[in-house]
Design goal:
The complex is a heterodimer of chains A (550) and B (501). Chain A is built from 16 helices and 27 strands. With 550 residues, chain A is of the alpha+beta class. Chain B has a domain of 181 residues: BirA Bifunctional Protein, domain 2 (2-Layer Sandwich). The chains are: A alpha+beta (550), B alpha+beta (501). Chains A and B meet through helix 7, helix 8, helix 10, helix 11 and strand 19 of A and helix 12, strand 12, helix 14, strand 15 and helix 17 of B.
Chain lengths: 550, 501
Amino acid sequence: MPTIKVSLSDISSIAGVELTLDKLREVIEVLKGEVEEVEGGYVSIELNYDRPDLFSAEGLGRAIGVYLGSRGLPRYSVNGPATRLDLSKAPSYRPYAYMAIVRNVELSDEAIRQLFQLQEVLHRDYGGDRRLVSIGLYDLDTLKPPFGYIAVKEATYRPLDYREEMTLTEVLEATEKGRAYSSLVKPGEYPLLVDSEGRVLSFPPILNSEDTKVTESTRNILIDVTGIEPELMKRVLNVMVTSVAERSRNPVIESVEAVRPGYSEVTPRLDWVRVEVKLSDIEGLLGVKVNPDVVVNLLGRMGYEASCNGEVVEAQAPPYRIDVHDAVDVIEDVAIGLGYGNIEPSLPPPTHFGAKHPVEVLSNLVRELLVGMGLQEVVNFNLISDEAMVKAGFQDFVKLKNPKIRDYSALRSSLIPSLLLTAKVNQRLVGRLEAFEVGDVIEVKGDTATTDRRVGVLLMGDGFTLTDGLSIVKSLLRYLGLDAGIRRYSGGPFINVRSVEVLVNGVSVGVVGEVDPEVLVDLGIEKPLVVGELSLGLIMGVLKGLKGSQ
Amino acid sequence: MWSMVVLPPLQYSIVKALIEANQPIDADSLAGKLGKRAEDIMRDLEELRSRGLVNLEHRPVNKVSLTSLGEAYLKNGLPEERLLSHLRSIGGRAKVGELARLTGLSDEEFAAALGRLRRLNAISLTGDSVTLTGVEEGLRAYVNELKGLLAGIRGEVEYPGELPSIVEEARRRGLVKVRQVRRVLASPTQGLMELYRSGELSSARVITSLTSADLASGAWRGGVFKEFDLTVEVPLRPIRRRHPFTQFLDHVRDELVAMGFEEVKDNHVDAALWNFDVLLVPQYHPARRETDVFYVENRLKPSEAPGDVMGRASGEHRAVWGYGWSGEEALRILLRTHTTLVTIRQIYLRGRGEYRLFSLDRVYRPDTPDPTHFMEFHQLEGIIVGRGVTFRNLLGFFTELAKRLGLGRVYFKPAYFPFTEPSVEGYVKHPRLGQLEVFPGGMFRPEVLRVVGLDRDYKVAAWGVGIDRLAMVVLGVDDIRTLYTNNVREVESMRGVAWVV
């Protein structure tokens, strides 16, 4: 979840009210945020993904002020189009770009930091780390419109925070951003934003120009979004434009026309989202009776233009509320406005019987029987190292593409490797051990992976033989009402002539055997082991078959 | 205050011996009188003391015995005596070196003897010559006292209280060794004397453990049952048992079944479609990156990827999130990151109806391990489906479940999940751990339900529970990895099943 850092005095001035930390903590809950850390006059706030309009002081202060009633909702009018953005020579693999202009801004050092933070959080959380959407801000007065978004083989400009000019190739090699994002551009077809005099604004999505950057003396800002997802880009542009506008006492927003042969689109649109909600829908979803006047009032505080017409509430969400799509989004804001604590919890009794999953019922039966035979239950992770799987003699299992730790790089396809780990963990703690695990394994057969519930048995220590293992397995099956047969088995980690396959009604449901000393030595296990494993899935199938035939 | 007191035979003979002795008597000699060893009667003495019949006094005693050096000196004379007699035999005057050779004493013994004789004024030293002074009273007295002591020791001699100075001298010279022991002195209490005088003391066989032979023979009738000692700690039995974690999870299952929920299961490994796309998590969402999801290296196919679901997912993603949805991305195979995959597919499979389902199973995320996070953990998740299901019911569910699990009151605050609206985070207040956010939930978005084919007439309250966190609290475990332990010592030390009450 995104965490942003804002200055308490900065959001206070945008909200139009002196905010104390306590007040902030209280209001931020309404916006699904949480104060994480306070340092000096700065507050770190964890926010939720759904409200990108809150990812900087501008939007956060705006929402808080509206909620507390210390300021009104902004009204936006868009003039223009003021100029053009020519897309006819845009790179084919990253073809879209839109622009907008905000005039009369006054930027403090803090304001610049906030807009930069907003840009970065949007890049990460809504721009697919710049792959889908990349954003740029420029001092309009350093530029000569109209603009062009073009693909070039090579060019030279002075990248942001650098003194000297570089070629685009050098930018990709020599700058941190260049190295981080070079995979998003193609050599021979580098994207470039330029003005009418060929001045470079930016090498998107890599790095803007030092010469066109926004400073405290900037009065008029040009914003661009470039990328591959036009709808998402326009939404992100709306969030940027409306946030920048908060830094002006008298913002003038101008649109820019993106053109290419046979196509033209004017941005930003800054349309309000109109949603109609019936009072009965609110009551139907929340389960509480609501009064239309209260709803209208609550929605006003939650940042909507709302009115009520009989049984229907009309809510208009500002253009930065890109999370509002459906009546349920408005209804949630009604619920938050009411306060979750004011909704009386109530659950009617069930109309149907509940039930445990049959495999859990069988698992418990097995656990009880094995504890009754004096075995100790242990638990292991399903994640395991692929080395442990291979050393135990297993080849087909799920391997992780991106393991975090080598010890957990696969999913077990058998409990046996887990039991060998169990032996290793306990060999110095106890003389002898009789233990079992009931757990899931993920089997890979061809191109499908399926889950099976298994029971595994482990006997560790001198004197245990296949006889002891088989005696447990056969007793277990007998107490489940099944007679087990056996046949020779070769495979797994066992001594060839001292392992068997267990059969129930002619179905092979598992194996038991003495572990090969080669395997023990390889794994660093110093005591003899007998291990066995039965498939509860298969046993359940047999039990069901028997029941059916009765 | 006293009524008839029945004692086992040995204890009876002990008190009798004590009364007859008429004075405090130590345990050793008491045992001797009874033909036993002291250690055989100590337990009985303690028991008699605890019943107020016998006084026991513990007194330290020094036991002194000869060392081999002491024995040798006693036989051959002390070095100072031997030195003096040699000096006398050669005329009462000699060079020190000459005298040393003559006496045959070791250098140390000779030096010590010479020093002692001079201090007692028996000799004088001038330069390197030694002269007899003829004054021998001091020496005599010292030698007689010391030799008298040594001669008087046969085996061990007891000295109660402080040691006399001559014993200390002998110890300093290494002629005797001293061992301190505690001696127990026993005497009858006033109460015992009274009982004895009034004839209210008797003896009978005491039964500590009834046997089948006693029952058969009727011998138990002549005995008395030994009073059980409440102060004695009994040994604890080792146990082989259920793992407390699986036991806890099963208890949770029972509670949900009682609340009318049916348990369902699904694949651990499946396509992103079921884990993310049908739930409207946009494909560019950070939660889908490789830092947040385990993807699979094997070439596997999804459990199913029905065309209608794919088509609707594509449409809803475009409408809600405004981007071009990729079918290929939706078919990437991953380890499920939540069990919402299980419940949402049940809606796809079952469609309309009134039902309550839950899933309690493992999920996987590449979290950095710490005491409260691991890459594999459990989620308890469920849905309440029906025409009249409301957000209020969801809050009611959390309240009821918390009550059943003994967690007390649940507090609610707004939250966000891409697939629910409204969304809620429920938390409880733990006396030690503070606010525990363990109850996330919400009403499934209509777009999500459309993707899996459920129309808007039906509503679904979806809830989850951070069950591992709760298990840690209930089982008194501070590290999530301990819940998944295969170490039998750790299993043994986990708290028991107190949650049942």
